[in-house]
Amino acid sequence: MIRTHAKTIGLVVLAFAAGIAVNQYSVVKAQSNMVYELRTYTTAEGRLPNLLARFSGGEVSLFHRAGMNSVGYWVPDDPELSENTLIYMLAHESREAAAASWTRFGENPEWAPMRAASVADGPIVTQVESMFLNPTNFSPAR
After folding, report:
1. Has residue 55 been placed in a domain?
2. Which among 8, 18, 29, 135 could bridge 139 via Cys, Cβ 3.0 to 4.6 Å?
3. Is 133 helix (H, G, I), strand (E, B) or coil?
4. How far is Cα 134 from Cα 30, in angstroms, rounded to an integer?
5. Which residues 6+ apart lie within 8 Å of 19 measured at CB?
6. In this model, does residue 12 exceed pLDDT 60?
7. What is the pTM of this model?
8. Residues paired with residue 128 on neighbouring β-strands, in sequence order
9. Residues near 72 by Cβ (< 8 Å), separated by ≥ 6?
């Protein structure tokens, strides 16, 4: 009876440890499948402040609600580019998740009036570049 009880406890401990290992593997695997989207927006002359105001005024929150994870937002240090360029990076679980998030963002009823208000004085963004990046096996961002 004691041996049976000890075997049962041993099996429970083994199953628990295996469950932890599988969960840890799943987390690591999910993180390793992340894709990063690097986006560069070039604005019309004098319109970068309007774009920055739109992002800081709620657009980033809409990104998060659509399932996008912000990595960072930057204005280049280069004097010329700092006048008309916003660069930012988003993290997505996959390219498919990115597409779904962008669809959700575009369909959000809060987005249309926000965009319309920001372009009332003319277009802000003149060019958008998007590049998806896969982390290398030695990248800390895996």
Report:
1. yes
2. 135
3. strand
4. 13
5. none
6. no
7. 0.74
8. 41
9. 88, 89
